[in-house]
Amino acid sequence: MSVKSETAVMINEAASETAPGENRNRIVQLVFALGWLAFAVLLATPILADSRYLLHVGTMIALHGALAVSLNLLLGYAGQFAISHGAFYGLGAYASALLVTSAGLPFWLAMPLAMLIAAIVAAIIGYPALRYTGGVHLALLTFAFGELARLIAANWDGLTGGPMGLRVLYFPEPVLGFAFSKASGLYALAAAMLLVTMAIVLLVKRSRFGRGLVAIREDEVLASFLGINVLRYKLAAYVLSSAMAAMIGTVYAPIMTFISPELLNVHETISLIGVLILGGIGTFSGPLIGTLIFYGLPEFLRIASFYRLVILGVLIILVVLLVPKGIAGVIRQRLEMYRRGYPLFSWRKLS
Amino acid sequence: MFIDVIQTMTDGLMIGGLYATVAVGITLVFGIMGILNFAHGQMVMLGAYVAFFFVTAGYGFWLGLAFAMLAMALLGLVMERAVFRFILTDHMGGLTVSLGIILIIENLAAAYFTPDHRNFDPPLKGGVELLGMQFSAQRLLVLALVLVLVTAFYLFLQKTRLGKAIRAMGQNRTGAALVGVQVGQVTAIVFALGSAMAGAAGALYGSLFAITPYMASGPLMKGFILTVLGGLGSVPGAVIAGFLLGIAESFGSRYLSASFRDGYGFILLIAALLLFPRGLFGFSGKEKV
Amino acid sequence: MSLLRIEDVSMRFGGLTAVRDVSVAIPKGGLCGLIGPNGAGKTTLFNIVSGFQRPSGGRILFEDRDITALEPHRRAELGLVRTFQGARVFPRLTIREGLQIARHLSDGNATRRPVIDDVMAEFGFAKYADEPAGSLPSGVMRELGIAMAISTGARMLLLDEPAAGLSAEEVTNLQRVIRHVHAAGVTVWVIEHNLNFLMGLVERCIVLDAGAVIADGEPRAITGDPRVIEAYLGDDAHAFG
Q1: Is the pTM of this model over 0.90?
Q2: Distance between C120 CA and the closest CA of chain A, angstroms
Q3: Residue C67 maps to a domain
Q4: Which of A238, B80, C17, C211 yields a CA-CA distance of 20 to 30 A from A74?
């Protein structure tokens, strides 16, 4: 009660102060604009610099960024905890590679088919798990599914090549004269995946569907009594997010020219969740910031991969316990308070 | 045919008991703390390594088993005090933190233990002939041990003062605190206890299968399946589900297809979620909304 | 014409009967109360009407349509919306976001949905518009709960003890809000433990005791009904305050 009245007082203070200047509004907008400009520059750098190394690193970062963005739709906006994103990423890679190499389909047909398969599988897993309130069932079931998918990829030698994996010797067919057979073309493809997933998430976020997902995340029961078909919304979010993971997986195959069951390792999914937590779960820029930090920084600092995962593990725990909003969440909150007339940097505890 | 069925049955009970040993810790911790501990599988893995080091150092299997349990109980205690007690009953927070712990433990284990497969000599070798049937002696021993462990665990919860306090907390945390249960202490004990069971399961796994830093996900997946099948938070439910799953897997792989062994549990899980929303046995799980 | 009709509804939990053969009709445009001592079955009855629980027997009709088996969200789409005891809002979302969510949810009733800015003005939310709902004073939080329900385009509101724990001033505000909502054409049914709150507010009161309706009529008539007095004195003599 005392906390409540305290914040109420704070609100009144803020309201009674002189209306925060237009200046502050402008500065906040400028910060956002600079952030997105930096993003555009980063995105263009590998192409402009025309370095094989930067193109390779950029491609991997863009793919992981796309995965993080698509997972954020489910975890961040809908608040549903699934541990199967890596499995659907792998499913997309395997399904499309098999459709192209064994069935002889063109890549651009294999991609939607792989997404369709992922969507159907996600619906079959999601329906029984999502009927329950609270989300624990989904976490349990999707973890089990992820393990099963990895075991299938490793053990079904005849189809998947078993633990040795599968060589991928094709490139997506050119589109409007734009070829994808060179490093720069593949980077453009990965960057396009990132932009497409961002666009989808932005559209969802602004839609009635997106608002419904946020309502479910905040309080499923209240959401249902306000007229939201909770099960259908959650299922749609899971299916959409999984289909996007599969889409990114279809691109992964020709980029890496090799796929193996390692792709479905649960570490892949846990890393993505860590990236979201770190960057700011449920914020639009959070997955991008988290991806840059987790996949970008170590690349340039030359940190061995296993330390990277250990450090991420520690970071996940620290962020969850101490700053659950993540980096983007904190930045957003600071800017919002600044806009309303509070100092930008202060150690005063925010509500 | 009859002999075959009996042997398959015994094998199923053995493997199911092993799964149950993993699952009781998961389901108890969830029931009491509201935390789905994904790092439970890592405890199984570390328990297997502790047993491995003891056995190869010449201390024998029984000391190895005891120390695997002790070491994991201590590690569990440390994790509860250092991390989990800060996010009690926050489902998603607890789950996320346990994922972080997986990354830490598994990658450190891979670095220090190397990814090589390890084995240690089981205490019993060769076969036993019973009623004209051949059984692997070590498998029978494991079956006996899991029965002892799970029964002891169950009796502890049912009969002892501490066990009753734990169950009271599972029903109603605040109520238990009001009647004088030291909630914080008991929570730590629950976590240590669940971890000790994982350590024991690890030692037993290690006496039968290869030990690697990546072995955790298999037992964890089975433990999760039992947790749901038995009704979230129900220890007896998880045990019965464990034996059922073990038998189903054994018969499935003996008479249907061995390569699909890990799929049976998953299909059972989906079917159970669709048909029996409260777990197979109607033990009302603790669905905290 | 009655908007909501409850016909012979019963609810049994094991051996316990929480609601016993209750039949009530709420007319369109009504402003009614539902009172009764603790454990009388008021909230259970609201849970049944709003779809939170399935009755063991009987049926619920809304605009002459049988909704007994409908999910809560379907009932909300039809215009039957409830609030919860205490204040159930989205604590981390701002007032504006909460209202937007409520307004943009259900299909098919676009014409009934009020404009957010109008709702904000009517409820006097303007100065809190961008504050997280969890940081609001509790009276405002209750009002937000009602505003969100209205924003879905509700035809009928079920309010579950909206005044419990509020200060005298907040209670007066709340009564004003409820009257306002009712004047805008929404049928309102309020659960309240305290009869004083309903006295000046509702035109009719239904009294529940031990799961059964024991009185139904004007508030003034109710207070003189010996059965009502007995039910209350047996449990809580403060009800008449």
Answers
A1: no
A2: 16
A3: yes
A4: B80
